[in-house]
């Protein structure tokens, strides 16, 4: 009869690892495809002069889509462009799919620019339309996304003196863009991301972070553990993939390592209730160190395998059921109750002496 799925704005670390394991994710390529996909979105966004809110929405959809589909079933470049195409519609910065494809092509081949009317974009255009449908199914028509940049500037001005704020804001803004190369945007709330970015920018610039750490976090609906989780995710990105980031190339690697050591010491301090991940189920602790199975599918490069609009995108070994979206909650409950009358199993217990 089917399942009822509710929209979920957040994916926690343990949930992300489980989804990657179920999809047979190849850990050797996961980080590379995630970062390169976001870089492509950002490059095309800048070429088309789209606002940052379109970029943040596109990256959110891209991350959610990749968690639910195996790498071998689509080309990560197609998925990133499809996410940007849909984000343009959602944020009312509408661009045609061929405009996006043309911009991506001209970035890749600057010596041979093409126009959006080029016939070579006909097939990729159909692929983007097909992937857009799968992204819609993945997010369950829940188009909400968070915009940390909107709050970031106001918070920097609140925490620092105007003269200092003018120096910190550019750095903090660039960190907020780099952050979308991690999973932090789908794990953390807006204020959690903003406070983590401001503190990290302050530490990198050698500024005093006492005021940011003394804020009443309950007022911002967050906690210290969540902020540390975002900061450590960013530091992992800067220490391992610095050449793919803007801020990572401005400092020596030792700078990031020193900050990371201090934050880890704060986590491991005696009597501290802090931990690496804010939401973590102790009973599922065995999943913390996941060994991803390398299957023939996940060992196939997405650059070789194509994305087909009519293709079946599903988890390994599973059939994709027909998906319907019911917007009336009461109607969904009535339908569920009607189905339950036919599928529920009743038992009678007898005691025999």
TrEMBL record:
The keyword Metal-binding does not apply. This is RNA polymerase II holoenzyme cyclin-like subunit. Gene3D superfamilies: Cyclin-like (1.10.472.10). Keywords: Cyclin. It comes from Cryphonectria parasitica (strain ATCC 38755 / EP155). CDD domains: CYCLIN_SpCG1C_ScCTK2-like_rpt2. GO terms for molecular function: cyclin-dependent protein serine/threonine kinase regulator activity. GO terms for biological process: regulation of transcription by RNA polymerase II. Residues 39-137 form the Cyclin-like domain. Belongs to the cyclin family. Cyclin C subfamily.
